[in-house]
Write a structure and sequence with these properties.
171 residues, alpha+beta, Thiol Ester Dehydrase, Chain A, 5-stranded antiparallel beta sheet, two-stranded parallel sheet, globular, binds coenzyme A
Length: 171
């Protein structure tokens, strides 16, 4: 296994304008569009960290804290905060900037988990993470607790999947 890598080695930024096709009926950025941006940038951070093929295993949540309007730009920042054996936690911070006033606000946050896959499509080990900044250190230290919650949630999801019917109304 390769040596651990710095959070900064997986850091990505993406800034976009909000176009008329990106908004919902409130004239603010459509949540599904933002979720696609989040998954996209997070997958690049995960791939930069491990230099393997990666898949999204889960998204904890996306907390939409502030609406993003057509007069704002939206900037996403992502980096790997922590790794297990084959899994990587990626944090995504979404900022909006009012392009007329320059005021910047955190608009959303999200944690996602990606798994590195080898050529046989089975999970493979990934390098550890070295946090440096105050933000990186806090996110790294608090990650094991979030990982435990995901293990429990996954067990619950599996139980629910076993219970659910796969019959269609027309069967
Ligand atoms: C994610 C996936 C590769 C895990 O494969 P698996 O054979 O179940 O592997 P394991 O149970 O050994 O888990 C591998 C790692 O993934 C983690 N993991 C699996 N499911 C997870 C979930 N829902 N949330 C967080 N972590 C998860 C495990 O904790 C483990 O972490 P570790 O290696 O750091 O300890 C598999 O479930 C899968 O392919 N899912 C579909 C992914 C996909 O298609 N994503 C695109 C979205 S549509």
């Amino acid at each position: 296994m390769e040596e651990s890598r710095y959070c900064r080695a997986s850091r990505c930024f993406k800034t976009s304008r909000i176009f008329p096709t990106d908004v919902n009926n409130h004239n603010t950025l459509f949540g599904g569009k933002l979720m696609a941006y989040i998954d996209d940038i997070a997958s690049i951070s995960a791939a930069k960290h491990c230099r393997q093929s990666v898949v999204t295993a889960s998204t904890d949540s996306v907390d939409f804290l502030q609406p993003i309007r057509p007069t704002d730009s939206v900037t996403l920042e992502s980096f790997v905060t922590w790794t297990g054996t084959s899994s990587m936690e990626v944090f995504v911070k979404v900022m909006k900037e009012d392009l007329l006033s320059g005021e910047r606000t955190i608009a959303a946050t999200s944690f996602l988990t990606f798994v590195a896959l080898g050529e046989d499509n089975r999970p493979v080990p990934v390098p550890g993470v070295i946090p440096e900044s105050e933000e990186e250190l806090k996110l790294h230290e608090t990650a094991p607790q979030r990982a435990e919650m995901r293990v429990r949630r996954r067990q619950e999801s599996k139980k629910l999947a076993d219970f659910l019917t796969i019959a269609q109304p027309w069967d």
